[in-house]
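Protein Record: Sequence and Backbone Structure Tokens
======================================================
Tokens: labelled as protein backbone structure tokens, with as many entries as the chain has residues.
Task: work out the structure tokens from the sequence, keeping to the layout shown below.
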Amino acid sequence: MLDVYVKKINHLSDIKDMLDEINFSEMFFKGEKILLKPNFVAPRENKTGATTNLELIKIIADNLHKIGAKPALIETPGMEYELKQVLDYLNISEFAQKNQIELIIPAKSDYVDVKVPNYEIIKYINVPKTVLENKIINIPVMKTHVITTVTLGMKNLMGLCSDKTKRNMHIRGIHKSIIDLNKVIKPTLTIIDAINCMEGDGAVYGNVRKANYLLAGKNITAVDKVACKFMCIDINKVKHISGFPLKDSIKVIGNFKSNKFQLPKPGKIYNFLYRGLYVIDVLFERIFSEHFNTFLYKTGHFGTRPVIQPGCTKCSICLEICPTNAIDIERKKINYKLCLRCLRCYEACPENAISVKGFSNPEHRRRKNVR
């Protein structure tokens, strides 16, 4: 029987209660290094539903310290984002230091090729050696995804792969590649952060969906299957989850009401074009030492991006909130070579004078000042 725990989170103390319920302290031992794998896919705060809740990570790390284990954060963002920019935006270095968590930033020399047993489409996975040597706590966010319908525990492990492997997975076929990846990397525990979730055109620029739940279990596929039920998503639409067989039945411990998540809109044409970007990137990166989709975003003509409208009153709130000084308020222009596409300016503008262009586009809603 594969146990999957589901718990409503009304207060931070409920997180500690859940760790007690799943016998967290019995899974890890004194002196062990435990890798914490969050979802830091992009420079966007947890309140948007894009990235893992830092309070959740802190509580997990605190409980590891009590055992005498050594927590370490390891993650890489989507290929179009730079790791340093994402970590700086989320203040991860400061967070890790304050909470005595080692921050692992693998060098190219740290990656090794691992042969996938009984592989379906990807023969080798390129991951940091430390991933193979230590236990992993997988801490994804519950989100929809424009390519894979959802991104939960199984897909979150892509953040442990080199860019070369990520690109190869997109080119060869994402669902079967995720199945191959999960044959190699098997987390000791998966805890899905369903406190602030994302629906619609995720996994970066969808709409936040506040659910206030955690889902946890030792078997990553079982946890993902229960998460799909939680989201009212047909498991057959998520081929990397439905295609990964389970030998045992699932036992859900805890109660929840299914929450119907808005699905992403993209179809086969979008997926084909998105896949094509990675094919072009193979040669483009070799020549220019930059990913092709990153280059396109910096032109200001492609990708999800903020745009200042003529109705701008030059109140300068966006200037105060922009982390990279990418805004020229006098010319009402944005320097997309500097813009992180965090959309803080869009969320903060009191005049609704900043819009968002691109396919993955948040629904228009009341902006909240986030200064």
User: Anything to note?
Assistant: Residues 2-253 form a domain with the Rossmann fold fold (CATH 3.40.50.11440). The chain is about 35% helix and 20% strand. Residues 364-371 have pLDDT under 50 and may be disordered. The first strand starts at residue 2 and ends at 8.
